[in-house]
């Protein structure tokens, strides 16, 4: 047992936070592992979305992951507001992308009435990587709280959440972090919101309001069983319930692999792997009728505006047959109905040879 890489079960969430500093660009005290992604979005909005008669709007994108849309919409309704008036959706251009300038223009148009902007780090359908630092700074200069859903960005691209002055962020751990379906999710809370102050030696501290629970209480007094909540300083104070030790074990194991390298090195490999995949996809299209190609890559061509994901918009009606052919040949490739195939050569475990083999299987599925 002395050789076990695991820590005492009550310290496992903290251990995962310690292992995630490079992953998201934050101090361990700004990171917490708890619950699941949508629950954490609700927990963060409970603390950070404070609508009033002047500021009540939430800026989001046109096609968020459905669970994000449900969470934002239900939070607005929970506060007695009308989603049609309080949800500001940024529409894409003709290429399915949302230019940064359009995001900034939307912020300007609604700056005085917006309470929160909540966008994806990487858009799940198109694969677009948003300019997180620029958008964050622009919104905060106008008094808007900034949150990010990093489900498709954490473990995929370099992040510097603390330096970028993000207010809060949430991510799952079963995509690029590889902890398994439903594994415990992560959240970031900037250090300014995790402070716990005891004024004039009072037994009742002051701290940012949040939905509180026993497991967010400071371990030094947690077992006093008192009714005065004393939160753990930092993001850990936003915990509510005891997280599953089994789930955290899978997260810890996955993070330990990331700790053998760095996000900078992974990103460097991802850039060339993705470029290689893009090149081979372009070759396939070059062999088909230019007037009727099999597919179109809708993810930005600029490597700085994407992670490893290339979203391939297939000709209508092709998705199900191609997905079946890929599966029959042992290829795990995500699909998003009605017509998008998400090709993601993840650098942690994908090789150039894997990319080439995938393309040969895809060519066969297309009848080439």
UniProtKB/TrEMBL annotation:
Function according to Swiss-Prot or TrEMBL: Catalyzes the cleavage of L-kynurenine (L-Kyn) and L-3-hydroxykynurenine (L-3OHKyn) into anthranilic acid (AA) and 3-hydroxyanthranilic acid (3-OHAA), respectively.
GO MF, one example: kynureninase activity
Provenance organism: Trichoderma simmonsii
UniProt subunit comment: Homodimer.
Localization in the cell: Cytoplasm
Catalytic activity: 3-hydroxy-L-kynurenine + H2O = 3-hydroxyanthranilate + L-alanine + H(+); L-kynurenine + H2O = anthranilate + L-alanine + H(+)
Enzyme category, top tier: hydrolase
Catalytic activity, EC: 3.7.1.3
Family stated for the protein in its record: Belongs to the kynureninase family.
GO biological process: 'de novo' NAD+ biosynthetic process from L-tryptophan; anthranilate metabolic process; L-kynurenine catabolic process; L-tryptophan catabolic process to kynurenine; quinolinate biosynthetic process
Highest taxon listed in the record's lineage: Eukaryota
Modified residues (N6-(pyridoxal phosphate)lysine): 175
The encoding gene: BNA5
UniProt pathway: Amino-acid degradation; L-kynurenine degradation; L-alanine and anthranilate from L-kynurenine: step 1/1; Cofactor biosynthesis; NAD(+) biosynthesis; quinolinate from L-kynurenine: step 2/3
Keyword annotations: Cytoplasm, Hydrolase, Pyridine nucleotide biosynthesis, Pyridoxal phosphate
NCBIfam families associated with the record: kynureninase
Keyword Transport on entry: no
Protein name as catalogued: Kynureninase
Binding-site residues, pyridoxal 5'-phosphate: 37-38, 65-68, 149, 152, 174, 214, 242
One annotated Gene Ontology cellular component of this protein: cytoplasm
Cofactor(s) the record lists: pyridoxal 5'-phosphate
């Amino acid at each position: 047992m002395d050789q076990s890489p695991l820590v005492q079960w009550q310290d496992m969430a903290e251990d995962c936070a310690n292992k995630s500093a490079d992953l998201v660009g934050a101090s361990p005290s700004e990171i917490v592992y708890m619950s699941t992604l949508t629950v954490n979005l609700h927990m963060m909005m409970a603390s950070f979305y404070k609508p009033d008669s002047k500021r009540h709007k939430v800026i989001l994108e046109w096609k968020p992951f459905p669970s994000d849309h449900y969470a934002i919409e239900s939070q607005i309704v929970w506060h007695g507001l009308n989603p049609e008036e309080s949800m500001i959706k940024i529409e894409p251009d003709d290429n399915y992308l949302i230019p940064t300038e359009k995001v900034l223009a939307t912020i300007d148009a609604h700056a005085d009435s917006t309470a929160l902007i909540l966008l994806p780090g990487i858009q799940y359908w198109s694969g677009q990587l948003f300019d997180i630092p620029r958008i964050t700074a622009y919104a905060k200069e106008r008094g808007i709280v900034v949150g990010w859903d990093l489900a498709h960005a954490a473990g995929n691209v370099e992040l510097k959440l603390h330096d970028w002055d993000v207010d809060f962020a949430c991510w799952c751990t079963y995509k690029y972090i590889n902890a398994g379906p439903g594994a415990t999710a992560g959240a970031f809370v900037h250090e300014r919101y995790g402070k716990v102050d005891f004024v004039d030696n009072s037994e009742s501290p002051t701290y940012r309001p949040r939905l509180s629970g026993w497991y967010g209480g400071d371990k030094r007094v947690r077992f006093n069983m008192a009714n005065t909540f004393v939160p753990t300083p930092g993001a850990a104070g936003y915990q509510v319930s005891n997280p599953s030790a089994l789930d955290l074990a899978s997260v810890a194991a996955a993070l330990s692999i990331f700790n053998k390298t760095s996000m900078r090195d992974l990103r460097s490999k991802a850039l060339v792997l993705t470029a290689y995949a893009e090149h081979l996809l372009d070759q396939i299209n070059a062999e088909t009728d230019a007037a009727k190609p099999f597919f179109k890559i809708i993810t930005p061509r600029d490597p700085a505006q994407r992670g490893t994901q290339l979203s391939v918009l297939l000709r209508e009606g092709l998705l199900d047959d191609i997905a079946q052919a890929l599966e029959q040949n042992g290829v795990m490739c995500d699909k998003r109905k009605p017509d998008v195939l998400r090709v993601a050569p993840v650098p942690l475990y994908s090789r150039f040879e894997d990319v080439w083999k995938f393309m040969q299987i895809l060519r066969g599925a297309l009848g080439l």
